[in-house]
Amino acid sequence: MEAISDLNTFAKILTAKGYDGYFQTQGAYAGKLKDSISEYLADNPKGIAKQELLLTGYLQWAGDDKPRVECCMWVKYLKGKFFLNKMEVARKDQFGQLLKQEKLTDLSVVTAPKAKEAIAMVSDAPEQKTAHRQKRFSF
């Protein structure tokens, strides 16, 4: 695990990796990654703030009637430093049923996959399409 000394650096690295959508910290405090964590920490004094934060968000969303990719990140928060502990990426159908899931452990912010790579881990392999050729009659 690698420590990132402050929230700005932590959020900047993850945003550069494509985690630039909206997240929730501890099931509330919706907003961009940095804003969500900042709001949670501001509302919870240092003695009360949990040492492991759960960040949840969507990596891919195409509407209520389409499958989606969700991401959960467990971040350790110790003495103002942030450690990315583990990550779970799940593809779910429009009803919330799990289609495919990947669990990543022993991560750091630097070794975490890019958002597109995380989506690819749980996406179905593209079906190979065969080109239909018209049969031509020869005389």
Count of individual helical segments: 3
Strand coverage percent: 25-35%
For the secondary structure, the number of strands is: 6
Order of SSEs: HEEHEEEEH
Shape: elongated
What would you note in describing this structure?
With 139 residues, the protein is of the alpha+beta class. It has one domain (7-122). The chain is 21% helix and 35% strand. The chain is built from 3 helices and 6 strands, in the order H-E-E-H-E-E-E-E-H. A 6-stranded antiparallel sheet has the order 2-1-3-4-5-6, with helices on one face. Strand 4 and strand 5 (81-92) form a beta hairpin. Helix 1 runs antiparallel to helix 2. The longest helix is centred in the N-terminal third of the chain and has 11 residues, at 33-43. The protein starts with 6 loop residues before the first helix and ends in a 17-residue tail after the last helix. The model has no long low-confidence stretch (mean pLDDT 85).
